[in-house]
Amino acid sequence: MAHDLFKIRMGELADIPPKLADMVSMFAGMDRQERIQALIDMGEKFKPVPDDVASQPYPESARVPHCESEAFVFSKPNPDGTVKFYFDVLNPQGISAKATAVILDRSISGAPLDQIAKIPADIIYDIFGRELSMGKNMGLTGMVNLCKFAAARHAHGPDSPGATAG
Known about the structure:
By secondary structure, this protein is mainly alpha-helical. The protein contains seven helices and two strands; from the N terminus they run H-H-H-E-E-H-H-H-H. It has a two-stranded antiparallel sheet.
């Protein structure tokens, strides 16, 4: 039954960036302890946004709403029309936000913008598991949503409907 639900979910995720779908598949194959360790390992690989992209104090438009770890999302267009994402997490204990930043950077930076737009907000549960607290889910989902908004802004220009700050 769980395997069938996973196949259905992966079908729903067919249009998202392939590297992100691969990450979701990788986490789905892990038990709870393996997943926790893998997320900690990801978080330890976090590197904050370079100074040439953004420096503190960061603009409020880059702040992830509802994030307890004070996360920020930045983006820069690539010459090929894709986007490179950058993140900062000001809370040194914000391991979940740092892991999410690493996952998003590795899996959606350089992806087609229309694929980024199709990422479901609840993908955070596919990565972290259903045990995620409501507060943590809101912040991590906010990181995904800011990436989606930034991709829309780059795809349609800063003045298009739905292309908000991020």
